[in-house]
């Protein structure tokens, strides 16, 4: 399986540009294109419940995920584009290669949720001092449309077979929080179902 992440995938382009300017002020380089494609080491995909990281500035990023199997059949699930925020100032692509990418084991077939695509709810919670706190919240309508995602993949020669694509995230509730654990989920009201991925973060001490 090949692994890709689509960055700067906000549907509101003006807000995306504003966000890019905010990031530039703290040293994060602007992307080469909007949206931006990141080809990620597929070995980073994980369903483990614990993640080891270096440093104290890494955090989750809940994403809707498309899974294209060997026959081209498409499924939908949720994952976390866990990212080293301090390394983003050096290279966004490198920051995405340094942390594992949790992904849920459960999934829906695309046909089951395509009629409510924009209404699917993404959320993330972070654990601080033993308590879960709302971290991200929004619907998939905040992300570029599914048709645009498919066109974007085609334009970047991404074959929609044997591939996993993290397609974008939703806004932070109250800024970055570097917690001890994260819970990322996607909710389908029509299905009456939720898919979640939960994991703890263990910080490796630098010698």
Description:
The structure is a single chain. The chain is α+β, with helices and mostly antiparallel strands and 207 residues long. It has a single domain (2-204), classed as Alpha-Beta Complex (Fumarylacetoacetate hydrolase, domain 2), CATH 3.90.850. It has 5 helices and 15 strands. It has helices at residues 13-25, 85-88, 92-97, 110-113, 146-155, and strands at 2-7, 36-40, 45-46, 50-54, 58-59, 62-68, 74-80, 83-84, 101-102, 108-109, 121-128, 131-139, 163-166, 181-188, 193-204. Strand 14 and strand 15 (193-204) form a beta hairpin. The termini are far apart. The mean pLDDT is 93.
CATH architecture: Alpha-Beta Complex
> What is the CATH superfamily?
Fumarylacetoacetase-like, C-terminal domain
Can you tell me the residue ranges where pLDDT is under 50 for at least 5 consecutive residues? none
Instruction: Report mean pLDDT, rounded to a whole number.
Output: 93
The gross shape turns out to be globular
Percent helix range: 10-25%
What does this entry show, briefly?
The chain is an alpha+beta fold and 207 residues long. 18% of the residues lie in helices and 39% in strands.
Provide the fold topology.
Layout: E1 2-7, H1 13-25, E2 36-40, E3 45-46, E4 50-54, E5 58-59, E6 62-68, E7 74-80, E8 83-84, H2 85-88, H3 92-97, E9 101-102, E10 108-109, H4 110-113, E11 121-128, E12 131-139, H5 146-155, E13 163-166, E14 181-188, E15 193-204
Parallel strand pairs: 1-13, 3-9, 4-15
Antiparallel strand pairs: 1-2, 5-8, 6-7, 6-13, 7-10, 11-12, 11-14, 14-15
């Amino acid at each position: 399986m090949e692994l890709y992440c689509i960055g700067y995938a906000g549907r509101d382009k003006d807000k995306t540009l504003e966000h890019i300017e905010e990031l530039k002020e703290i040293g994060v380089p602007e992307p080469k294109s909007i949206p931006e494609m990141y080809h990620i080491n597929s070995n980073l995909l994980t369903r483990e419940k614990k993640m080891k990281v270096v440093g104290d500035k890494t955090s989750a990023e809940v994403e809707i995920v498309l899974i294209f199997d060997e026959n081209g059949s498409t499924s939908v699930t949720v994952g976390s584009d866990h990212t080293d925020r301090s390394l983003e100032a050096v290279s966004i692509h490198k920051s995405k290669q340094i942390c594992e990418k949790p992904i849920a084991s459960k999934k829906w077939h695309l046909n089951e949720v395509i009629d409510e695509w924009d209404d699917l709810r993404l959320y993330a919670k972070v654990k601080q001092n033993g308590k879960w706190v709302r971290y991200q919240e929004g619907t998939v309508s905040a992300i570029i449309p599914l048709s645009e995602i498919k066109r974007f993949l085609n334009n970047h020669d991404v074959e929609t077979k044997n591939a996993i694509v993290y397609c974008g995230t939703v806004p932070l509730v109250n800024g970055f929080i570097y917690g001890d654990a994260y819970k990322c989920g996607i909710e389908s009201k029509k299905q009456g179902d939720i898919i979640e991925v939960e994991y703890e973060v263990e910080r490796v001490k630098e010698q």
